[in-house]
Amino acid sequence: MKEENLLLKNAQYRRLFILTVALLCASTLSNVVLGFAVSARKESVILVPTLPSEFRVGSGSVQAEYIEMLTRDTAYLILNRHPNNTEYFEQALLQIVDPGRYAQVEAQLQADRENRIETATSTSFMPIEIYVDPSGDYSEIVGRHFTYVDQELIASETKVFAARWVRQGMSVKLADFAEIEMRERKGGAL
Length: 190
What we know:
By secondary structure, the chain is an alpha+beta fold. It is 43% helix and 27% strand.
């Protein structure tokens, strides 16, 4: 009986040993597969040369610095216009416009282009201050706006422009950009 008990215990230990070795092999194999999967995964980060650091847009609110940079770049595209560069700037601007407003903005840009060509008018804008509402859907930019006919400066004034933003998934799109009166500013006094 003693020998039979020893043989049974030995068989139980052997089965336990085989099961342990099988689980260890399965665990090792799964770790190797996961290791290859992680090392082969490609992560991409979009680098925008005009942004000073990396920004992330998640399910929460958009970083104020990102909206500030969008406001600056949008003002540059809209307000620094010359009859010779309008088409390039229009195409760049239309890439950030909310699709619901695309046709309307495109029509406004085309009318503006035709007017600039007819009148030989160009404008430039020098930002002074940018305000971003904490909600992330509104911003203002204050700056000096210069108007030229041919090469003659005909106007130089401080103006305020307001931008409204909408989120679409993980992107932020321009819904509206318009001049407002200085007294309508939400960003406070200069």
